[in-house]
Amino acid sequence: MLGIQPDGGPPVSPLPLPPTPRALSADMSGFDNNATDSPPHRKHSFRLSFKRREGARREQRDSLGGPVPAKFICATSIKPHTLNPKWNEKFKFDIDEINTDTFHLDIWDHDDESCVLDAVSRLNEVRGVRGLGRFFKQVCQSARQGSQDDFLGSVNIPIADIPSTGLECWFKLEARSHRSTVQGRIRLKLWLSTRDGQTSDLGDGIGERDNSAEVNKIEQLHTVFMQHEIATHEPSWTWNGELPGPALTILHQMAVQADLLELHCVIARFVAAAKLNRNTPLDPKFMHRLLTEVEKQWNSSSPEQLTRELEQWLAEAMNGFVERSLNQIRRHRDIFPALHPPSLIRLEFLLRCLGLLGSMRAFRVVCPFNKGVRGEVVNALRKGSITWGQNILRDGQTLPNPLAHFVTILTADIQVGQSYYHSLFDNTNGIQYFTIIYKQFDAMIGDEVYSRMELGQVPGVRLNLAHYTVLEGESDSIDVKPFDLFLALQEFSQLKRFLSAQPQPPEKPLALAQYHLWFIPTFERWMMVSKAKALQRIRAAIRLDAICEGDRVVRYSSSSVDTASVLVNIKEFWKNMMWPDEETGIMLESQLVDVVCATAMHYCDLIHTALADSGYYEQQGPFRCSDDMCVTVNNLEYVRCSLAGFRSDENPLEEIADNLLETSLAHMENRCERILSKLAPLMQTSLQKAVFHLAWSPDSLPANQAIVPLLEYLDSHLGALNSALLPKNFNRALRFIWKTVLSEMSRQMETGDESEKPSNFHKRLYEALQLLVDFFHAESQGLSMDCLHSDDFWRIEQRLQFHKTETLRLIDMFYMNRLREQIMANLPGPYGAVVVRAYFNHDSLCVEVLHARDIVPLDPNGFSDPFVIIELFPRRVFAHCLEQQTNVHKRTLNPIFDECFEFSVTLEQCQTEGAMICFTVMDHDVLTANDFGGEAFLALGTIPGVADYSSSVENFHGLKQIELPLMQQRDKNNPILQILELRVNDKLAQDFVRKQKARSIQ
């Protein structure tokens, strides 16, 4: 229940005093039963009351003697079962004294339809002010009864505190006394206005009449106020759309006096702004706010309240705004620069305005034939991009390469669009800006390039195999303009990775999808010309060759630098091309590799021939570091490294190209090796003398002193080479010199009679060999250990080790080597096999020879008379065990022996390193010596009872047969036998050598 009471109450909040109004309008928005935004759930409803202050007007009304009109007190509808009711109801009251009257509102919880609501329905029966007082008393008494309405709170607002422009906010509910407990708040919208004549009926206060003229007046007044504000801002779009207080008061009073809806007011405001925006750009954020208000009022009002004239008026304004906005979209690059943040904000809100228009009910109603704002924005982008691109192309015609410049500018524009514009269009309207612009530019560039190629205006590019446009007949020059265009097109084409991945309807392929195919003839021609020019430049560089020196004394010449730069430039050129097609790229890359290989090989042959013609290979010792040799080999290595740079693990070459490159690198490597291989022969005489001094020095001279002349010679010459050669070449030279030193040591080791050599001859050479390894390794600065430990090194090191070893140990080592050969031998062997079994039990070694098969025929009749000799090695361990043999079997190659033998040995003897059983197959001859048919070895550590000595074996039952392939001595130069043979005064050594030579293959 709400009304006007004459008593001025305390103001809720001090507000500026408006011009004196004559009417009050109240709009009930909602109720909150808590002081916070989230009230607890209690069940209430409300009614309203008002009081009139005694005074002249009250006496005047009492004198009338009639009922008090219902317009002085009003009640809202009841909202059942809610703690947050929403009424959205409008009421109007006449004000007598603006400075003293108070707006009063009561809220009640409705419990019974016959209590307070019935009392309110009898308002027209009240006569006079005194009767009205009694009426309120009855209402309060009925509210205090058990089943009557409950009082929830009241609001008192002085009329003087309400501005004419209105007041809309939440008001806290008040109690009637200190004993009352109330909570909650209610949202009210209040405004004052002056009116002529009588007030309209309660409700919306709008009659069924055409108010187009009043709306037009409001629009014209808005225009005047806006023009005044715009005149004070430069540029115009910096005005945020706010009008001063007096202007708002005037507009509000005109709207109230014209009895206009809020919808009429917001439409008038938008139309005024839209008309101004056609010639004077306004802030898009302000326009977006106006459109939002129009849509809000349209949705909350009845569309029938607008006349056809007003709808057409609104449609013209909206269409004009859309047309103006689309024009700005077409010119967005100039109007909204990407690098100007305020402009991007304006563009964003302009797009938001267009997006809002596309979804507004008001726009669909008043503009039913509009094709769709989003589609028009897309078309505006396309048309604007075409116009902008054409201007760029026209302005660049005077440049040296206009087409490449055109593509470059468009590429830069699309990159800027991707970074700045794309997200704005996508987030506001779902428009894929980049995709639209890229496809438009792609079509423009494709058409322009193709048409110019047809006319021959693109230098170096041809469309078919019939003709070249520029390069034909120009073998000594290359026009770089086609490559500028290629790189520009490549950069543009690479941006297609940002195209939208959303499903699209079938479209024609991109115009530049195969752009690279246009340039294949250009590349082929370029490589032909480049090869000829590279060879020509190399020959000129060699004629003008000059020695260069870096920070060190490394010797090289300017021709290598020129050649390497040619190769590097070709490599960088191809790398920058980044050819997009793998299939054609392999073909072009193969041709490119052919060009660089031919260039490098040509240089290699020229400088090597020049060195050979200087007599380098005919010179004799002694060695001296030659500048010609150092420069030539360094030049070769320098160019070889540049050529090797064409091989990459990340991008391997095609097989044919890789093979060609490998062949060229190997050829240059061989040239370097051949040049440096001359160093060793030049040093050989001096090295021979130094090694001889080392080997044949008196016993009193230790190895570290005897080797001094050799190390001094090497140090002086290797130091000069190290300074003059590149590291790779110095390493090559070291390998050749190391091989020569090893050869001289081997020569001295094999020279002379063993009886004539000093007693520590081999020991000193062995120590000297270790010293040389350290010298050539040079703490990882020289040759690597893998390179030093070559086959020649291991052969010399082994022989020196053997020379230091006593005879019995060498014999043991010989049989251990034979055992290793036995283990590595495969079945079936070329000399047959023998099948045996063996086990150890209680200090007894039992051996069973079962049979042999496929032994070698040693008699003229094609057979043999075989028997087997069983021996235990090493002899120093099993000296007490004599050899044993099987019976002889006549005329057979597959004898069956089935004989057992026993040897008295201990477990410790069987576990000795190198302990084995030797089975020797012999051919029995009566008149001559028995012939050797082969031998086999069985390690004692592998037989039962020794391998698993914790278990016992009683007999051969259940033991696995062991088939051993027979072997013969094939190495006539066995180092152990050679060393033992040199020990002429050692009978054991001579007997062993004689026995083994009898068993070797002749």
TrEMBL record:
InterPro entries xref list: C2_dom (IPR000008), C2_domain_sf (IPR035892), MUN_dom (IPR010439), Munc13_1 (IPR014770), Munc13_dom-2 (IPR014772), UNC-13_domain (IPR052095)
Record-level GO BP terms: exocytosis
Where is the C2 domain positioned along the sequence?
A: 6-171, 826-953
Its Gene Ontology cellular component terms are: late endosome; recycling endosome; secretory vesicle
Q: Where is the MHD1 domain?
A: 483-607
Q: Which PROSITE patterns does the annotation name?
A: C2, MHD1, MHD2
Signal peptide location: none
Outline the extent of the MHD2 domain. Answer: 704-814
Sorted alphabetically, the keyword list is:
Cytoplasm, Endosome, Exocytosis
* Annotated Gene3D superfamilies: 1.10.357.50, C2 domain (2.60.40.150)
Q: Which domain of life is it from?
A: Eukaryota
Query: Where located?
Result: Cytoplasm; Late endosome; Recycling endosome
Q: Does the keyword Chaperone apply?
A: no
Concerning SUPFAM superfamilies, the annotation shows: C2 domain (Calcium/lipid-binding domain, CaLB)
**Sequence ranges of Pro residues compositional bias:** 8-21
Q: Where is this region: Disordered?
A: 1-46
What's this protein's family per the entry? Belongs to the unc-13 family.
The identity of this protein, by name, is BAI1-associated protein 3
Which organism was this protein described from? Glossina palpalis gambiensis
